[in-house]
Amino acid sequence: MSLDQIKKELREAILTGNQNKAIELAKKIIEQKLDIQSILKDSMVPAMDEVGELFEKKEYFIPELLISARAMESALKLLKPYLKVDEEISAGKVVLGTVQGDIHDIGKNIVKYFLEGAGFTVIDLGKEVTAERFIKTIEKEKVDILAMSALITTTMPYFKKVIDELKQTKLRDKVKIMVGGAPVNSEFAKRVGADAFAEDAPKAVQVARNFITELREKS
After folding, report:
1. Can 3-87 and 93-218 be said to share one CATH topology?
2. Architecture of domain 3-87 in CATH?
3. In what order do the strands lie in the sheet with 145-149?
4. What's the pLDDT tens digit per position in 44-81?
5. Could you tell me the CATH superfamily of domain 93-218?
6. Among 59, 60, 140, 219, which one is least packed by beta carbons within 10 Å?
């Protein structure tokens, strides 16, 4: 199978959420020693961008987002170990987690898949993440972006606790912060001191890309 044919079929597999096909194609890419960086750039990232566009047009909904994201993640997981060191160029580094007291992580997981599909390195801390754990990870991993999620109103104030502790540890200016979750909105994000609100996974990718552009312009 040619490189162009694999790119076309992998893009289609991600768009339709065909996880088995995506895995099969990833294995062929490895067997044929094809250009993985080219496949990521020309097939996988554009496919996830298109999924995001379909979601915004209300042609796709949460189930379609999830199955497409899982198809992409399955292929990416197989391909990543075969990327050459000099090819591992990340769009940026993100630490991601659902805040302490909140056990909901489906939305957070979809955001993770989309960010990875867009080329970001994602450190997923899971759910019920404490401020201390967020801060330790930011210090250790030198991340560009902190992305926090809360799905219940009683855990939303924890965003501010994390941000206040980042200020105390002199780390606030070193990282861009986005927040999200069903009860969250842009007004609340501003109130707690976040840099942006992302209402869904495609928006989270847009916000993250804007953050990285801002950070690179400053450096």
Report:
1. no
2. Orthogonal Bundle (1.10)
3. 121-124, 93-98, 145-149, 176-180, 196-197
4. 999 999 999 999 899 999 899 989 999 999 999 999 88
5. Cobalamin-binding domain (3.40.50.280)
6. 219
